[in-house]
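User: structure tokens for this one?
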Amino acid sequence: MTNLTRRTFGLATTAAGLALAAPSVLHAQTSARLVVIGGGFGGASAARYARMAFPRLAVTLIEPQTSFVTCPYGNLLLAGERTLPQITHSYEGLKARGVRLVHDWAEAIDATARTVRLRNGQNVPYDKLILSPGIAIRWNAIEGYGEAAAETFPHAWIPGTGAQTALLRRQLEALPDGGVVGFAIPPNPFRCPPGPYERISMVASYLKAHKPRAKILALDAKDAFSKQGLFQDAWNELYPGMIEWVPLNKDGKVTRVDAREKQFETELGSRHRIDVGNVIPPQSAAKIAIDAGLTNETGWVPVNPLTFEATRARDIHVIGDANIGQPMPKSGYIANSTSKVAVAAAVAALEGRPAPAPTVYFNTCYSHVGPEYGISVVGIFRPGETAFVETANAGGVSPRGPLAEQREHRRLEALHADAWYGAITKDAFS
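Assistant:
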């Protein structure tokens, strides 16, 4: 990928991506029932877009939480740069647009009868279903890491009410100066590829200010990661000597944890004693997608890249982190933009029209690595006949270089990240 030299490229691609991802199709002249499961970036964006573009649709959003805590910007809470209310968003904007909100768990999908069974026992019928359920933690994929262990070693990777992120923040506050913060980082694919490394950076930012003798041990099940050079440049300049990153080829894969003894054990048997542990475990599509028989042997849902319809069931369009969209990352940006194509494709099918023309997808992943210090990577993708394809020699990453030379660029990228967050949350929830 080539370096980005225009400071406004991230914002430009954001705007272009949202425009390209909302195809111009005729408004639906139907009272068909569109049901959306999951009120994250994918599901909320789908419900909002459906009501705006196709006002005759009866749109129902099934989401157990009454508000949404975002995964993006959760890492800034760990650094003390955001509060939980600042990353919590209401569904009242969707309600005002005419979306029917059902705050309950979707327990099962009957693809033949085209109904969704709720935890309260009621069935919700649909003509088309947009499934955006997010991820599930693969409990015990790392030996010893079950739900109980997550109360000692929080994952903070499924926001929910924000309790896991708040727990990790409290643990950092209680960390003794000179203590060790351990990270267990999963293999690909997983939600938000740069996320663990932004989290390492934000934790380091907090420690530098409040526990300067503390150390970070990052044990990784991979040998490389997104924006690696940029992150490591920042770690060396901002947090010299604080962060040790151990890749897979140096025994970085955590295979067992002991919550009682506060230990991480790696593949070759090395044991690491830590004071605060963040385990980001292997993941899969959410349980409802697995139970509905939509996933394959990978644990993710294969979809038609033109329509996002699940290959294993008709009339169910799967968006967001749950589907197989590689090389597109599992990101809020992609969930937001692909949601509109999925809705347009679903409506076209209901009206007996062809699916919208293939769409170009932009993805910009911003990361904060310190105060007024942002970096980004941009990718451009297109649907192929059977999978998605990254456009060669397009997109790029922030330029590398000493902070003394790049300070203004880093400051502007941090501002661009803030602007992106404001824009995407407005596009999903207002």
